[in-house]
Specification:
Chain lengths: 158, 158
């Protein structure tokens, strides 16, 4: 088990484009219960199964296992709750940390968020000029929530 | 992915005791949704994560992965829905098939079921004289159901 410490921000500029390395992600969920999220992901050609517990501050217990690509495809196509999330993840190094910019497609088109994984909760972060409001604690932006309440529907209920 | 074909019976006699090989199981669930059950199990010293889809007749899609024992312990102790199931599984060979006798403890004390895994749905089975009623299609006996509705509570609601 790893303890994952992440902060999440909305992306407000285009300064990140053309930087880093971009990979296509498809992911779905077997459980969106926030005490025990179970995620299936294909990142490029790699399949993984991840289990995440409830957030405690910015920290979160996480277990992740590589699984055969064909299993990940079957799980996404037949067992995960629809719809399957599609996004491009761009990983951009900044000093000793990495920014991950997620640009969503499909029902979440228009949403772009950036996450930075930190060695401990109080680690200082230099914010790039293309990030805006912090949304670390806003459950709406959790990927497991974007399945049931996609970004395209948010304005309708506000 | 494997397709699992199993038939399940109540155990009515003691003729199985002293046969085969017995292993202690601890298992819990990250999802009990019958379309996407996610099970964590420790069998002896081996940890596994399994994902099962909905039954179609006696057949059921199943994905199973070995995980580190320490991960399985953490998942059972911190992330699975309580309570954790405890049972002894005794595997008894019979010709080309294997009977698995599960004797439950804790809140499911008194329940003993036997499962036989078959190469195809219509494969003939010789029933040992210690099995009784078939419960293959009775959801109450699903292990994922025994977490929320343990055997000790059944009489109270009938």
């Amino acid at each position: 088990m790893a303890i994952e410490i992440e902060r999440k921000f909305l992306v407000t500029g285009d300064g990140w484009r053309g930087q880093g390395t971009t990979t296509r992600f498809r992911q779905g969920f077997l459980s969106t219960d926030k005490d025990r999220v179970v995620r299936v992901r294909i990142a490029g050609e790699k399949g993984t199964l991840a289990i995440k517990g409830r957030n405690r501050g910015a920290a979160r217990p996480e277990f992740e296992y590589e699984i055969p690509l064909s299993d990940a495809q079957s799980l996404l196509d037949t067992l995960c709750m629809p719809p399957i999330l599609e996004k491009n993840r761009t990983v951009i190094p900044q000093g000793e940390v990495f920014w991950e910019v997620d640009e969503f497609f499909g029902d979440n088109q228009g949403l772009i968020v950036a996450e930075v994984e930190l060695p401990h909760e109080d680690h200082p972060v230099d914010l790039p000029d293309w990030v805006g409001q912090e949304v670390t604690h806003d459950r709406r932006y959790a990927n497991s929530n974007l399945v049931n309440y996609p970004y395209s529907k948010w304005n309708q209920s506000e």
